[in-house]
Amino acid sequence: MSATGIAVAMLQVVLTIAAAPLLVGMMRLVRARLEGRVGAPIRQPWRDLRKLLRKERMVSANTGWVFSIAPLVLLASAALVAGIVPFLSTRSALDQVGDLFAVVYLLLLGTVFLSLAGLDAGTAFGGMGASREMTIAAIAEPTVLVAIFALSVSTGSSNLGAIVAATLAHPSTAASPESLLAFAALAVVTIAETGRIPVDNPATHLELTMIHEAMILEYSGPDLAMVELAAHLRLVVFLGLLANLFVPWGIATTVQPLHLAAAAAAVAIKLVALAATIAAIEVFIAKVRLFRVPELLAASFVLAFLAVTASFFLA
Amino acid sequence: MNDTAFVQLLDIAAGLVLVTSFAALWLRRLVAVARVIAVQGVALAAVAFVIGLYEHENELVAVSLMVGALRGVVLPGLILRAVRAGDERREVESLINVPAALLAASGLTLIAYAATRDVVALSSTPQVRALPLGVAVMLIGMLLIVTRRKAVLQIMGVLMLDNGIALVMFLGTSGVPLAVELGIASDVLLAMFILQVLTSRIRNKFGGTDLDQLRELRD
Amino acid sequence: MLKLLRKIVRTGRVTETIPHGAGPQPFLGAPDPLRGSLQVRQVDAGSCNGCEAEFAAAFGPVYDAERFGVRLVASPRHADALVVTGPVTRNMAEPLMKAWEATPGPKLVIALGDCARDCGVFAGGYGVAGSVADVVPVDLEILGCPPAPADIVAALRRIVGS
Amino acid sequence: MVGFSLALAAVAAALAMAAGAALPMRARVLWVGVLTALSAAAGGAAAVAVLAGSGTFTANYPNLFPLGGVRLEFDALSAIFVLATAVVAVPASIYGIGYSAHGPASRPVQIAFPLLVWSVMMVPAAGNVTGLIAFWELMALSSLVVVLAEHHHNTEARTAAQWYAAMTHLSLLAIVLALIVLARQAGGDSFADIRLGVHQVGPISAGVVFLLTLVGFGAKAGVVPFHVWLPRAHPEAPSHASALMSGAMVKLGVYGLVRVGWDLLGGGPVWWGAVVVVVGLVSAMFGILHALIASDLKRLLAYSTTENIGLIFIGVGAAGMFASSGNRTLAAVALAAAMLHVVNHAAFKGLLFLGAGSILSATGTRDLDRLGGLARRMPVTAATFAVGSLAIAALPPLNGFVSEWLLLQSLVHSLPSSAAVVAVAMPVAVAVVALTGGLAAATFVKAFGTAFLAMPRTAEADQAHESPRTMQIGLVALSGVCIALALAPTVFAAPLQRVALAVGGLADGRPIHTNGVYLQLSGIQAGLSPLLLAVGLMVMIVAALAVVRRGRVRRTIRDIPAWGCGRTVQTARMEYTATSFAEPLQRVFDDVLHPEIDIDVDHRTESRHYVQAIRYRMHIRDGFEHRLYLPLLAAVRRWGDRARAVQNGSIHRYLAYSLVTLIVVLVVSR
Question: Are D468 and D96 a contacting pair, CB within 8 Å?
Fold first, then answer.
């Protein structure tokens, strides 16, 4: 583990945290423009977070230590993942610390803590959100791991740096059926895990339809700021994984500042394009009923599964 | 067209044929299923087109254009008309639920791969390596026929089955003679007409084509 | 889908622009952290739903309150301001109190509509506990029966200061 | 050193049994606990010595039994299982001191527990067929006594013991048959002789021996369809004994399978591994689904044991498949994953059972729907149970994640060049492992969340209090083990190589490389450093705290009512229960679980339009028990009734039976 590697990892974490609320602001803006509105400025999520940090923190009598540490664990796991995922360079020091499996399970760690916090609130809606979140997390898991399986068959490793490097070395694999199928599968999971339409509606006010929002009804002030920031970060991490695993061009394979700056620009363009696409699609579709979500995830599982069979047999 | 590009295009087109058959199991609206089958027909034509271009067989290219017109436009168009003509509910009614059907189809795909392993081992051309896809599409077409209740969907299943057979032929023999394809196409067309006439008769007589109700006809 | 896309393209932007130089008169009681970001929890304390309709319109495409950093939230824990409508009925007095207690400070209460201010035509009704100010401390009142969306947006702008 | 430790373990166990028989109650509980812990620690020391490389220890006691002697052969494979036993037995024994004071302090249990610990450690140490069977039976009987501990006031314990006795003897029967056939054909009783003579065993006999082994040891391991005794016996046994049974005893099923199938028989065709993988897949899925819907905490843990044994079987079976198709390096990785999971599961499942025991003794119930709010009342139990829950849900940076990671790596890197059956099995295996991982996370969020968080749902839960000091020591020790195993799995690199070498028919080479911090696998380009992951998480948490503290948080307001959407009363009845938490997932898997739902609606007498009461009952049965065992039992009963006709009390008929038997014997033996 070299000092430059650690520096790259820290840089990634800081930049991702800085960019995540902006990306969410951009998605809200795209949505607003398609709805014929002006919309809030892109920096609005940062303003909201700054304000939340200056508000009171309220802790109800029912809750215990789980409620208090859950936002920290959620945010820390998302931030750590932001250091592992190759956003800027394949030379991040954290690349050897954890591979794609570690990334998936770290994100699950955050989900688990948030669900526990939802239960700890002791309200009906907190438990409801927790139960739904774990349901979706559990049935999304096979899709994610099987998609990783497909990726690591064609590249020979589950390490993120290695996958990216392999795609860079053989550009044609990016358009092979297995990586297209795996991309589609992971895209569906990304939408499910980050609570976007059609699985969950991030802007809903009706408790009965909530998933993510129901768990955090009890959080306020700085705790809420951490939960929100973590949700933004997770969105960026998932989108960044999609972008850089399948279309890695532009990423730096060195640690020279110039290359890193170019890589930052490249990944920013990819993220904006992906996020804008998702936001635009959301305008066109409605949220599905909760009990139809398993069908959606089953379909994504089938895509991942086909990706594995394709990589086994067509290769 | 160089080799890599050929392999990629072939795999993507053949993969699309398989993915559309999964989509046909997944979708609920009859109209959407019919459209997906149209896409499948176009993808199938693309397979033949790519092979024809790569191997410089003008006959195959011609066949591919015909296949595209027939299976991508004409037959699905007929089905769409049949769907729109029926005043019954335009939703798929299935004997098994969607996730189960999808998992079953994944299982069938694995079986197709396992069953064709020996054939694939004989030759290593990209066409032959994609052969299991065709077999899988055939099996999924049969699954569709077996598990769905409406006669219209059975017709779509037959068409998918036939698409699978055509895919196997294109991949396995590197080009079907024009005459054979013409013969098969006319057979399918004929079958479609007969089925359509039958379903409309049934509908006129009994007001629906739910197969479970067709059991009443046996005496 | 294509139909919707065509509609989007053809409609374009419908939000009314704010006349130039019509900056809001700052509301002096607004706490500093709330500049530029205001999360609102709406509480219907017994309204006829006229105010709700106008309030919803304020967040619609034409008035678009969201462009000033105002957003509706689902829980008072997330909120900076409670927008209360209607005369407070007996059954809603306690929930309103609870919602106010559940809101983390610094917080504001905005009474929306004439009923919220003085119970309007419902004053003295057997089911009415009183105006909003009788139950929770009110910081800002928006008058009208119901108030126009433009007035609502103007009042919200006084808090966020933009 | 190894010999001395094993002798010490035996002496301590004997003393503990003597203490259990002779001393008065208070002293009895204390001394049994201390001496059993000493015995287990001595066994653990021997295991550590062998794993560290002191070589295989052998000893011979030829005249112990009339017909055959006992031979001890303590190699690395034995050692890893003995280590797993020691990991759970030492804390469980100490925990038992406090736990037994309010419960199972009777003489039979206090004698049986040390015997159980010792026999569980001696089964892997046995070096011949006679010894293995003798220790096995000793283990079965002592555990049966423990399951029966509370039979006086609990009829459930009696049925549980009947199921357990039946399954354990089915298991013994199959094992004895398998080993006798093997010993006979290979021409020797000791394992060394069998290894030498195994080439004389034909492929068909080898297959039969393997299948019998799978049935026999699988029944002990609690894999589907032999799992039925687990969810009955584990809840009824005293909790520290459940911890030992679930954490260590069932693992001996895995030990037996590996020892006989891949060490003594030296491995076989691909289908051996494939069968084990399939059994593992079914067990993992079935176990976790039933754990998910269980609301009895100990039943949940028992089903989760079936799931984890399933995962270990997947590892072992995959290793077998890889070895048979020629990829012995990958086989070593898969075996390493399975063996590491054996140790890890011993630690966290032991911990969870001890935690369940603490809850049981504090509240008197195991029903999650009647618990809640214990985190504030039992902070030590809550914190340790949280560690166990995170570990068993395979979440980083805890130890369950490390073994699950290894398992996934070995499955994912089965290259397309291998046999068709491998290529078909591996995607399915990865999907099932992933789904079990996700469902396990949901299950343990449910278990921890409904037992410990929010408000208590009943008065018993409200009046709960932290358990005695000795029980806390057991809990803290085991969670310490979990954390240590999580942060430093690298110390297992060399021992796991020794285990791989000990199983000659399966693997060779060094599965794991390490430079102290990183885990690296041979033949696979993938790395992991659980230690640095943990450090990274801590750094991020500290950084987040620092940033948030620096913001001008005005103040923290505590002890206010929760926001219940303005409802005037907010009671614990409104919380999600364990059953409601699992409901969406149960609905997803309706086709597998087949819940039976009854809804009774009572109308008011005045009008049918007004409802008086609605009763909703949902019951989910164990499909295998319902469809396989109950019909089987009914059939046995019918045959039994029929057989009674044979026995009608007439002395003439009995004499006629003797005559017929004599004639048959004469004819057959000629």
Answer: no
Q: Per the confidence metrics, is the pTM higher than 0.90?
A: yes
Three-class SS of residue C130?
Answer: strand
- Supply D353's token pair: 């059972």
Strand partners, D57: D74
Chain A contact set for D454 (CB, 8 A): 62-63, 119-122, 127
Residue C144 lies in a domain: yes
Distances from the Cα of D211 to the Cα of D178, D194, D273, angstroms? 8, 18, 11
Q: Which domain holds residue C43?
A: 33-160
What pLDDT is attached to residue B88? 56
Q: Is the pLDDT of residue D538 over 70?
A: yes
DSSP code for C120:
G
Domain containing A141 equals 3-313
Kindly state whether residue C116 falls inside one of the protein's structural domains. yes
A145-154 burial: b if 16+ Cβ within 10 Å, else e: bbbbbbbbbb
- Distance to chain B for D428, nearest Cα, Å: 9
Nearest partner of D370 among D463, D465, D466, D458, judged by Cα: D458
Torsions phi, psi of D160, nearest 5? -60, -45
The verdict on a CB contact (< 8 Å) between D424 and B100 is no
Rounded distance between C-alpha atoms, residue D542 and residue D525, angstroms: 32
For residue C97, the model assigns a pLDDT of 93
pLDDT value at D415 more than 70 = no
User: What digits encode the pLDDT tens for the residues D442-465?
Assistant: 999 999 999 999 889 999 999 999
Pick the range with the lowest mean pLDDT from B49-58, C77-86, D335-344.
Answer: B49-58
CA of C141 to nearest chain A CA: how many angstroms apart? 23
Tell me how far apart the alpha carbons of residues D187 and D205 are, in angstroms, rounded to a whole number: 14
Count of domains forming chain A:
1
A51:C80 CB<8 A: yes
What phi, psi does C130 have (nearest 5°)? Answer: 150, -175
Residue A127: C-alpha distances to residues A116, A194, D576 (Å): 9, 19, 5
Say if the Cβ atoms of A298 and B22 lie within 8 Å.
Answer: no
pLDDT for A45-83, tens place per residue?
999 999 999 888 999 888 889 999 999 999 999 999 999
Of D27, D142, D30, D150, which Cα lies nearest the Cα of D94? D30
As a whole number of angstroms, the distance between CA D414 and CA A153 comes to: 9
Asked if D563 lies within 8 A of C104 by C-beta distance, the reply is no
Q: Mind spelling out the 3-state secondary structure of A41-106?
A: CCCHHHHHHHHHHCCCEEEECCCCHHHHHHHHHHHHHHHHHHHHCCCCECCCHHHCCCCHHHHHHH
Residue C139 lies in a domain: yes
- Are chains B and A in contact at 3+ CB pairs closer than 8 Å? yes
Confidence at B63, pLDDT banded by 50, 70, 90: confident
Distances (CA, A) of B145 to B149, B158, D569: 8, 7, 56
Q: Does residue A134 register a pLDDT over 80?
A: yes
**Tally: H helices and E strands in chain C:** 6, 7
Nearest CA distance, D559 vs chain C (angstrom): 12
Nearest CA in chain A to B121: A313
Residue C18 lies in a domain: no
* In contact, D388 and D352? CB cutoff 8 Å: yes
d(CA D378, CA D467): 7
Maximum alpha-carbon separation in chain B: 62
Residue D370 burial (10 A CB sphere; 0-12, 13-18, 19+):
buried
pLDDT for A177 beyond 90 = no
Distance CA C159, CA C34 (A): 7
Q: For residues A163 and D532, is the Cβ–Cβ distance under 8 A? A: no
